[in-house]
Design brief:
The protein has 215 residues and is mainly beta. Strand 6 and strand 7 form a beta hairpin.
Length: 215
Amino acid sequence: YSLNLDGNDYIDLVTSPNYGPSSNSEFSFSVWIKPNALGGFVISQYDNLNSGNSNFFLRVDQNGSFQVSGDGTNSFFFGNVAFGQWQYVTILIESSGLTHAYVNGSLESIGNLNLNSNYGSQILTLGRVYGSPATINYDGVIDDVSLWDYLLDTNEIQQYMMCSPFGIEPGLVGYWNFEEGSGNTVYDLTSNGNNGTINGAIYDAIIPPQSCNLI
């Protein structure tokens, strides 16, 4: 399964994050998305321009590109959003702020994000951003959200794009694959146990095009 959001829905994943991008840590995250409309925050730990926290977001921008931000005081744009098609987006954020953005396993852009030594204190959420009433919620399908406490390499990005993690991989600190199929709880498959809460989104049988070749 995946989760389908209609522009009003969202999923709260982690209420008190203790990992993320910062000037003291490295961080990667990946997500499959199939957007239906411009605008909308895909994943966010954004603290409404609180530069004291190294919060972040990934957004489908109004101009048809992806947008990624660090502490909210700057951001950069990359890639082209393909509406109605699955795309695998991966972001690698170094402690220096140097950021690599990948789409479908290929490097799209390199930029610099402003970071702070503190993790963002806001709820990690899918489909919306907290703290601003004017934000646009994500409209589309989302699947396989993974968070890592190190910088993935290109081979790992392409590997997990084609064959999803199990939840026990070293450095994997959060992973939600939405295979529950019913109910309002999505389970974190890592040992951190950050189970999330669905607010309005529905399960969908449309899933990304993957092919696991297991030896």
